[in-house]
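S1.2 Input.
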Amino acid sequence: MPRSVNVVASRERRKKILKQTKGNFLSRKNVLTVAKNTWEKGLSYAYTHRRNKKRDFRSLWIIRINAGARQHGMSYSEFMGKLNAKGIAVNRKALADLAMNDPAAFEAIVNSVK
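S1.3 Output.
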């Protein structure tokens, strides 16, 4: 009985990994064993950075709110504390958007908590 090897499936598996490592440096893109390591490491970075992205955006929103609040003579912590005390439920994403794109509306919110 002749030896049976599934060359088509094997080649497809290799091509799939090599396609995903396209653009990497030197042998990381065309040597399968090296490319596979690069690809696996990249997947772990992608997983981690999907979580870090949320952290980075929250940090950006806080920076923008702080800058907007300081233009009206308040710090970020003071502004958020008074906002919560007044019971105004606006999330940081919306506040940051108002501070950047609609300063008049942001000023109205600041004046309402002063």
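S1.4 Remarks. DSSP finds five helices and no strands in the chain.
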